[in-house]
Write a structure and sequence with these properties.
This protein is α/β, with parallel strands linked by helices. Helix content is 30%, strand content 24%. It has three domains: 89 residues, NAD(P)-binding Rossmann-like Domain (Rossmann fold); 216 residues, UDP-N-acetylmuramoyl-L-alanine:D-glutamate ligase; 141 residues, Alpha-Beta Complex (Protein-Tyrosine Phosphatase, Chain A). The strands form four sheets. The protein has a ten-stranded mixed β-sheet with strand order 8-7-9-6-12-13-14-15-16-17, sandwiched between helices. A six-stranded mixed β-sheet has the order 18-19-23-20-21-22, with helices on one face. A five-stranded parallel β-sheet has the order 3-2-1-4-5, with helices on both faces. Helix 6 links the parallel strand 12 and strand 13.
């Protein structure tokens, strides 16, 4: 591998960035290009001294490149991809790279509509604290690990599994590349309508994933999601376990919780299989993060011999992932929170978590429609009721709105008109004016909650730079 050169097209993707660092750590000579570089991914890449090329240019595809990794957001019209095809340079999707260089015999995959990144990083942290030395990959910047993608010598790998396609040339769902032996499914909420025109198409991808599990594996399902139970529970050829926040007839469930402390959430998990309860505590915000920890703990208790004491210590020291309710600013009774929420369930859960933690504060929710589902007129009705708990809502620019046809794309004001029925103080503010608008209206007690899988075209970072 030493001396082989690999180029990443779209290196700033939340998965592409850590994978590129992993490949460099494995001995490859790595370069990467993207249309722009924004924190936290840009900071992570610079800290790792990665060679970054701004913009997509055919000149970036040099004759000494051995193969190319293409991000799934890239299309055939990318000048670098055109050059790759012209020069007949081998190319791969990043799930194919993970399949080849990271996945181990004991492959743990975390899939579902929500919580994947946090659960995956929590499992990796628990295994690492127990000296199991796992390989792992999750689409975010960890607060516990230097890297979010590591290929190690241990026998376990832990991966965040996504149902979206792998690349324009690899229409296979990413998670189907990961050869799962153990699988967690957190929820099934129809998404990615551009790839899954019907709910049945969406669920079928998960059925295909479950059918990959060997008889000696294990399937862990969130029993609070009825679609998960109805569609997946009876098709696995391996033992099935369940976890819940409310139901008692499950393998693992939340027995009690104490949210009274500002800094620590204490809770008790009941293991119905062993008929025992375990105490835990976490510094993470939000009851949904308790659910994420229950899933991680349940899996580790089921498939490993790690002691409760070691799991407790690991959970207590688990700090989470950047852009998951990450507090970016907290001064003068003003708070700025950054979150990756980009779908209805995630947006609603994120706002509820902040409202629960800060019941008296004035919450301004700022959302950037970034995914295809968020930008598609067919899914406009999913904006109803998702901003509950906000005092004010701002809808920013539609990501790549100029590239979508008028008959398909949502107008920001269409979203505002729906949201206003519930939250009258709602408006559209362009990314260019967003930072200035927020500074102008800012007052003591405000919480500004940014939600997007994108970057608001740098508006959040501009605001943070200009705050005192």
């Amino acid at each position: 591998m030493k001396g082989k050169k690999v180029h990443f097209i779209g290196i700033c993707g939340t998965a592409m960035a850590p994978i590129s660092v992993m490949m460099r750590n494995l001995g490859f000579d790595v370069t990467g290009s993207d249309k722009g570089f924004f924190p936290p991914v840009s900071v992570y890449l610079k800290q790792n001294n990665m060679s970054l090329l701004l913009g997509y240019k055919k000149e970036h595809i040099t004759s000494d490149i051995d193969f190319v990794v293409i991000g799934n957001s890239q299309g055939k019209d990318n000048p670098e991809i055109i050059e790759v095809l012209s020069k007949k340079i081998p190319y791969y999707s990043y799930p194919e790279i993970l399949e080849k260089y990271l996945i181990k015999e004991n492959s743990i995959v975390v899939a579902g509509e929500f919580g994947k990144t946090t659960i995956t990083s929590a499992i990796a942290h628990i295994l690492s604290c127990a000296n199991i030395d796992p390989s792992f990959m999750f689409g975010g910047v960890s607060l516990n690990f230097k890297d979010a993608c590591v290929s190690s010598k241990g026998e376990f790998s832990v991966l965040e599994g996504d149902e979206y396609n792998s690349a324009f040339f690899d229409k296979k769902s990413k998670f189907l590349h990961y050869r799962p032996k153990y699988l967690i499914v957190t929820g099934l909420v129809w998404d990615h309508v551009d790839l899954f025109p019907t709910k049945e198409d969406y669920i079928q991808a998960y059925k295909d994933l479950v059918m990959l599990l060997p008889s000696e594996g294990a399937l862990l399902l969130n029993s609070d999601g009825q679609d998960v139970i109805n569609n997946l529970q009876n098709i696995a050829q391996c033992p099935v376990y369940t976890f819940s926040m409310v139901k008692k007839d499950t393998s693992f469930y939340l027995e009690s919780i104490d949210l009274s402390s500002d800094n620590v959430t204490r809770f008790k998990i009941r293991d119905s299989i062993k008929n025992i309860s375990y105490d835990f505590e976490t510094s993470l915000i939000g009851i949904h993060n308790v659910q994420n920890i229950i899933a991680a703990v349940a899996l580790c208790l089921t498939i490993t011999n790690i002691s409760y004491e070691d799991i407790f210590k690991a959970v207590k020291s688990f700090l989470g992932v950047k852009r998951r309710l990450e507090v970016r600013y907290n001064k003068n009774n003003i708070m700025v929170i950054d979150d990756f929420a980009h779908s209805p369930v995630k947006i609603k859960t994120t706002i509820q978590a902040v409202r629960k933690k800060f019941p008296e504060r004035h919450i301004v929710s700022i959302f950037e429609p970034h995914t295809m589902s968020a930008r598609d007129k067919k899914t406009l009705n999913w904006y109803k009721d998702i901003f509950q708990g906000s005092d004010r809502v701002i809808i920013s620019d539609i990501f790549k709105g100029n590239l979508l046809s008028d008959d398909l794309k949502v107008n920001p004001n269409d979203i505002v008109n729906i949201v206003k029925n519930e939250i009258p103080d709602s408006s559209h503010v362009t990314n260019m004016l967003l930072a200035d608008e927020l500074k102008k209206e800012m007052k003591s007690g405000d919480i500004f909650l940014f939600m997007s899988s994108g970057s608001f075209s740098g508006a959040l970072e501009k605001l943070l730079r200009e705050l005192p």
